[in-house]
């Protein structure tokens, strides 16, 4: 009897503790608004005191880290926080220490909320391009203490360079005001991007974002896209990846190409895709000892595969239909039969008119190899690539891909292959590409 009472009290204590954890994790809003405003407002007074400055940074990190699981709660307050910090960076009276400290705070915000959302808050007027570029040119890529400044400036430049005007007009405007320009804005931005793609710290990631935005501009892609791809492939070919620095250089260039083929238009990139694919095959990055390189290699390979294939939604994919039992019963047999015939006819017509490039087979082979990689992140990326590419294939070829994935489930294969096969099947099923006819196959 005493034991039962003890068990009941223990279970009750567990339930209370679980309730407390849930209440702690689920936040209702940004409750530290006034404290954060005071902390940001004090930066001009503390930026020279090293110890006080470090305490302020850690305090701000603690506040922001509470919202890692619910970053959307920061959205109503992001604008005023960003504006306050950017005012410090824009002011001519701000000493370098205050500018760097402000960018450290901005980096913390972007890390918690995500750079894709945070970039939308950065000013992107025509008048912002030159000041940001000038501030970027004054930075030292080798300064380990101020890498957050360079990271945020590269993101800011990624947004500012999207102005809907030809950049040559901006050069003419600046020259008419008597400002001495050593080279065009386009060349300066491209030089900055190339420089920071080859560094060994986090600004390398922001530089790849800059490339994906800048190189897809209409005026830039016509003048500099081919040259940039030549530079990228030359860098890949000449880098051996034997040292940490060379590994980082390869990572930066591969990241930029992956993002470029993701955001660029297919018509602009299709002519370069076979050349890039051949370069990657010769480099044999799938055999690299660095998981980081194998992962970005798989990402780039799948983006090349999607470039070879026309954007289309497979008409043959599995349709789940209505989730309401009453709605399903209300459908007549005649309507159901017509719905079953129509997609099949449409699929056959599309498949007959669509030729699949030979390079797609090479891409799929590399992705299938990626499913057996020893690192989970590589297998996961390969599985997503299998799903994306299969969704653009005719039904017959897509069924062959599913069959190749099922070959991973062999007793001669390793645990990694089985796990990669499961990830691929899950991705195919999520996209409606795993048809009911395949469900009866014995794994």
From TrEMBL:
Record's Pfam families?
Answer: ARM_TBCD (PF23579), ARM_TBCD_2nd (PF25767)
Q: Name the chain's protein.
A: Tubulin-folding cofactor D ARM repeats domain-containing protein
Tubulin-folding cofactor D ARM repeats domain mapped to chain residues:
293-441
Q: Which PANTHER family does the record cross-reference, listed alphabetically? A: BETA-TUBULIN COFACTOR D, TUBULIN-SPECIFIC CHAPERONE D
Species: Characodon lateralis
Query: What InterPro entries has UniProt attached to this entry?
Result: ARM-type_fold, ARM_TBCD_2nd, TBCD
């Amino acid at each position: 009897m005493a034991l039962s009472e003890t068990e009941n009290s223990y279970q009750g204590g567990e339930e209370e503790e679980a309730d407390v954890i849930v209440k702690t994790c689920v936040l209702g809003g940004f409750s530290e608004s006034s404290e954060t405003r005071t902390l940001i407002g004090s930066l001009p007074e503390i930026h020279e005191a090293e110890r006080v400055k470090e305490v302020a940074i850690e305090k701000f990190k603690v506040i922001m880290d509470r919202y890692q699981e619910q970053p959307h709660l920061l959205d109503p307050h992001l604008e005023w926080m960003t504006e306050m910090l950017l005012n410090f960076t824009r002011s001519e009276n701000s000493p370098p220490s205050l500018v760097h400290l402000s960018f450290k705070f901005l980096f913390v915000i972007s890390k918690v909320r995500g750079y894709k959302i945070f970039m939308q808050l950065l000013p992107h007027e025509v008048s912002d391009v030159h000041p940001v570029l000038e501030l970027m040119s004054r930075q030292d890529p080798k300064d380990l203490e101020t890498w957050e400044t360079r990271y945020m400036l590269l993101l800011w430049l990624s947004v500012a360079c999207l102005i809907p005007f030809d950049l040559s007009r901006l050069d003419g405007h600046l020259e008419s005001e008597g400002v001495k320009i050593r080279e065009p804005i386009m060349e300066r931005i491209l030089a900055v991007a190339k420089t920071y793609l080859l560094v060994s710290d986090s600004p390398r990631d922001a530089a790849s974002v800059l490339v994906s935005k800048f190189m897809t501009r209409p005026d830039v892609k016509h003048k500099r896209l081919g040259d940039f791809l030549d530079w990228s492939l030359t860098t890949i070919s000449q880098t051996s990846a034997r040292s940490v620095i060379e590994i980082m250089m390869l990572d930066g260039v591969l990241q930029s190409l992956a993002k470029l083929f993701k955001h660029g238009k297919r018509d602009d990139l299709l002519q370069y895709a076979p050349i890039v694919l051949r370069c990657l095959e010769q480099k044999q990055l799938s055999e690299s000892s660095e998981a980081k390189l194998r992962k970005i290699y798989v990402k780039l390979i799948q983006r090349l595969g999607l470039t070879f294939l026309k954007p289309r939604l497979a008409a043959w994919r599995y349709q789940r239909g209505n989730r309401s039992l009453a709605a399903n019963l209300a459908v007549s047999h005649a309507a159901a039969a017509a719905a079953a015939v129509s997609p099949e006819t449409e699929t056959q017509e599309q498949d007959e008119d669509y030729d699949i490039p030979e390079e797609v087979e090479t891409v799929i082979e590399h992705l299938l190899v990626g499913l057996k990689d020893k690192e989970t992140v590589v297998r996961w990326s390969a599985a997503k690539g299998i799903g994306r590419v299969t969704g653009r294939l005719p039904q017959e070829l897509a069924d062959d891909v599913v069959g190749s994935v099922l070959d991973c489930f062999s007793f001669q294969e390793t645990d990694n292959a089985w796990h990669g096969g499961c990830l691929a099947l899950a991705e195919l099923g999520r996209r409606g590409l795993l048809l009911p006819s395949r469900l009866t196959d014995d794994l």
